[in-house]
Amino acid sequence: MTDTAPRPTLEAVAARAGVSRATVSRVVNGGDGVREPLVERVRRAVEELGYVPNQAARSLVTRRHYAVAVVVAEPETRVFADPFFALQLRGISKELTAHDNQLVLLLTEGRDDHARVGRYLAGGHVDGALVFSLHLDDPLPELIQRAGVPTVFGGRPGWSDGTTDVVYVDSDNRGGAREAVRHLVGLGRTRVAHITGPLDQTSAADRLDGYRDVMGDADPKLVVRGDFTPAGGERAMRELLGRCPDVDAVFAANDLTASGALRVLREGGRRVPGDVAVIGFDDMLPVAEQTDPPLTTVRQDIEEMGRLMARLLLRDLDRSSGGATPAGVVLPTTLIRRASA
Length: 341
Prior knowledge:
Blueprint: H1 10-17, H2 21-28, H3 36-49, H4 55-62, E1 67-72, H5 76-79, H6 83-98, E2 102-107, H7 111-122, E3 128-132, H8 140-147, E4 151-154, E5 168-171, H9 173-186, E6 192-195, H10 202-214, E7 223-224, H11 230-243, E8 249-252, H12 255-267, E9 277-282, H13 285-288, E10 296-299, H14 302-317, E11 328-331, E12 334-336
Parallel strand pairs: 1-2, 1-3, 3-4, 4-5, 5-11, 6-7, 6-8, 8-9, 9-10
Antiparallel strand pairs: 10-12
Helix pairs in contact: 1-2, 1-3, 2-3, 6-14, 7-8, 9-10, 11-12
């Protein structure tokens, strides 16, 4: 058995800094009204003593848990296989960590999980929630509204309940899709197809709308439904070649879909971009730079989307910061040209 050194207390920090216990409490809990020289003395004493604030006591003072739930409306098999989620979570984690907040990850495998998430959020364990990858029939928005926790959504909301002040962060999916399809048309391609994402998600629906903005009178057989996965891209590409063997360009709803489509084209002896030009969406470097050939794609800043979601939520939680939180933020996209188109 070894003796454990006692944890430094507020009183010990106050004595080292030569200030009152109340002053130390205000400084370590982020309170106002302490002159900067005293703040520096307290911080120096905290560092010298290795003082760690008691989270329970801190919560009593600030009425905050310094924890944020990140709710991903997808099963774990999808979340851990798709680099999109890793990038978004990295952005969220960086922003929360920079402000001394903990990330609590909640995934939904089925309806029972939705109810569990709703109960957790209503139980007062976290200060707010960041929610993304919602589907149109998802019960989470209603459960979150009932829980009464401040929330920022990733992606344009697709439900219509009369709510106009929903805070969300999205990319210009429709504009990015238009730019991709215009590029393909500009290359002289006349049979431009689209492999969609799951159309119960607004990002996929908006990208389909962007395709139709440019190819309004295109053969309906040139649109095939996918699911944002490589297997879905393979399946859709085979269906597309069966329907329209003269297809000469494909706009895929995301990079993973495009990677599956490229495999099928290669297996079928189609040259890319000679016979069929291919463009994706996301610009996830682990995917886009490693396809054969490297993928032309629409870049959205996925990590920045995550950071911005967290930043907006923390701004809402910090009532003292002042200023209104914008209802919706849409980030621009950029076409990144590589060898596939």
